[in-house]
Amino acid sequence: MCDNKLGMKIAVIIPNLNGADIIGDAIYSITNQSTKADIVVVDNASIDNSIEKISAIHADTHIIRNRKNLGFAGGVNVGIRYALKHNYDLIALFNNDAVADKDWLKHLSNRLLNDRKVGIVASKQLHPDGTIDTTGDCYSVWGTPFPRGEGETDNNQYDTEQLQNITSATAGATLYRADLFHEIGLFDERFFAYYEDVDISLRARLVGWGIAYEPKALVQHAVSATSSKLGNFRNYHMLKNTFYLYIKLMPLSLLVKYLPRFIFTLTYKTIGELLKLRIWMILKVWAICLYSLPALVLERHRIQSKRKLKAEDFDKLLYKKLTTKQRQKLPLNLIR
């Protein structure tokens, strides 16, 4: 167990799937942090030499091997359970294709310690070319999450104090209080991958936790280095999880208010996939959504019954405009 100047136990959990060629840089950037932490790699049944490489180069890394691929949500939950069992105070999640600045963890942990109301702190994540990957996630009244500032040149435009209270944190380089998991539970494993971080952020918001963006906490992220190898994997889970998010988390008055937009979003996305002849994928998506609906409704009732945030305050967190990508795709008469 390593010591740090904060006097708190910090675990950094790195999920891995066949990341032998990239995870070494991720681990190295964590071992060289100015604020020390223990590293836990959760391997999702890799078939490359990830485990052997980690064991040979980073002997102090604790490795947990899953017998099958549990996805991002299931994988990090294994690591979080380990951290909670061993009484860690703060738990960071870190992508295996990311590299952190040496003071990344210091800035994140200081932000949590300076504000007891904040339960999650997100990083500034940049692409290798220096453009923005994310400065936190937004959730739209159209029912779609998206990374704030994605693809923009980083001119510190999101770094002002007024923009550091965010709706959701991207889990790939984010710090969580252990107390938050004790209160609201872990990641929803039905999501498997994509938007599970938005789900847990909005669940935290609904019970009163704050979520902050720390622009000094810098990370370089090679986006989709794992999922880009998996065909329609991304499209399938994004469409499925768009449905899950809306059903679970929208307060009733807002669910009704924005339902026409949400239906349009689902219809538009479904037609787009059908035009690409991804018929089998769409059938799978809607079959599992309908199958999951009763459980989602029960989960919704549990979440909403504990809600402390008023519907009108939740509404203030929602992004009201169309994103740039949406404007580029839609006919002009639909967005005026």
Written overview of the protein:
- The chain is globular.
- The strands form 2 sheets. Strands 1, 2, 3, 4, 5, 6, 7, 10 and 11 form a 9-stranded mixed β-sheet that branches. The protein has a two-stranded antiparallel ribbon with strand order 8-9.
- Helix content is 42%, strand content 18%.
- The C terminus is likely disordered.
- It is α/β, with parallel strands linked by helices and 336 residues long.
SSE inventory with pairings:
Layout: E1 10-16, H1 23-31, E2 38-43, H2 50-57, E3 62-65, H3 71-85, E4 90-94, E5 98-100, H4 104-114, E6 118-126, E7 132-134, E8 137-139, E9 145-147, E10 173-177, H5 178-184, H6 196-206, E11 210-221, H7 233-249, H8 252-257, H9 259-275, H10 279-305, H11 311-317, H12 324-329
Parallel strand pairs: 1-2, 1-4, 2-3, 6-11
Antiparallel strand pairs: 4-10, 5-11, 6-7, 6-10, 8-9
Descriptors:
336 residues; alpha/beta; nine-stranded mixed sheet; two-stranded antiparallel sheet; 12 helices; 42% helix; disordered C terminus
The N- to C-terminal Cα distance equals 58 Å
Structural class: alpha/beta
Structure summary, number of beta strands:
11
Rg for CA atoms: 19 Å
The coarse silhouette is: globular
In sequence order, what are the helices and strands, one letter per element? EHEHEHEEHEEEEEHHEHHHHHH
Query: How many helical stretches?
Result: 12
Helix share bin: 40-55%
Assembly type of the shown chains?
A: single chain
The residue-averaged pLDDT reads 93
Low-confidence stretches: 331-336
Question: Mind summarizing the main beta sheet?
Answer: 9 strands, mixed
Q: Strand content of the residues, in percent? A: 15-25%
